[in-house]
Automatic annotation (TrEMBL):
Biological classification of the source: Bacteria, Bacillati, Actinomycetota, Actinomycetes, Micromonosporales
Domain PDZ: start-end pairs: 161-203
Keyword Protease attached: yes
Protein known as: Zinc metalloprotease
Keywords of the record: Hydrolase, Membrane, Metalloprotease, Protease, Transmembrane, Transmembrane helix, Zinc
Primary localisation category: membrane
GO biological process: proteolysis
Cellular localisation: Membrane
Organism: Micromonospora craterilacus
Superkingdom of this protein's organism: Bacteria
Amino acid sequence: MSFAFGVVLFALGILVSVSLHEAGHMLTAKAFGMKVTRYFVGFGPTLWSFKRGETEYGIKGIPLGGFCKIVGMTPQDDDVEPGDEKRAMWRYPVWKRTIVMSAGSVTHFALAIFAAWLAAMTFGLPNPDRPTTEAQVRAEPAVIALQNCVLPDTTYRECAAGDTASPAAAAGLRNGDRITSLNGTPINSYGELLTTLRATTPGSTATIGYVRDGQSSTTETVLATTKRPPIDNPDGPVTDVSALGVGLILSTPGLVSYGPVEAVGATSDFIGDMAEATAHALQRLPEKIPALWTAITGGERDMDTPISVVGASILGGEAVANDAWEIFVMLFISLNFFIGVFNLLPLLPLDGGHIAIAWFERARSWVYARLRRPDPGRVDYFKLMPFTYVVILIGGVFTLLTITADVVNPITLFTR
């Protein structure tokens, strides 16, 4: 029940975000005097509506977004009534049209920033000092987290009958113990623990020194056998190596909370990191298409593949079911930020495409004026329709792939 509640709650949050996106367009357009005739949440048949002034507001039957109708978005629009010619959007200065068209993305950014600021003051934002690279992780003290079993190879799965139980657990070690030696060899970091284990014969008995609650002690256990590549070459050949059945507990907390003032700076840094990550993610979208197809056709789902709103809602449901509200909020923040950036791409029919055309027209008019030539006028949107259809087709196929992958082989953060 909590999983279903989380899915619905996250989907509702995105619906509200998209509705506010359209409200951003509407409010800025009205502020400049443009005529807005319709503002609806959802698509399809109208369930309920009312008219106030010149604008009809309402709710439609398919809750998959929303829209607002601004009269005369392009010179080719035929929705301008007699007497409203001066209120057609395309007749307004380019800076006003830019504000109106970017208001949707600005709304998403504002939601992401505000949610991040609230998160910074409550459960916290990701700790910038937390180790992220492999080298940083291996330099951490060998504070262990017991695993339920030792998997026989590099393929990740849940423990099954017949898997070797954790040798560390059999030796009486506990979560939070810090390993200080293995067969007399001093252990000062998690990387040294891995290196020393690889030099130990699989299946042999090992003497382990450890510290618990400030007290040093030793214990013995029979090491398990698993298959791993060389530590310094993850793509190298796998061989039989010793395993202790432990993971690492990082010494630095994953999240850090701040006061209201300090949260402003932390939020700024967090959003900056997210902007950089989003830019990299957009650049890598094309190369992720084969991975999505692999996931759809029965292969393993790559955790780094894109997800749709459906997949994000599933992850939101998992977060709520596991009482991990910080993950729920982080998903909401990242998805809003990504939508905001994506909508500003200079491609029709995205908002960024309309902005790019408006500034292209302005630049072209400036150049022609300097050349003492007649203004070439406005861009003919009808001539751009083939390119628009191509963008819609590619976007539709990509959306279909991500939704299908999220349904048949979803990314999961928790065991359900």
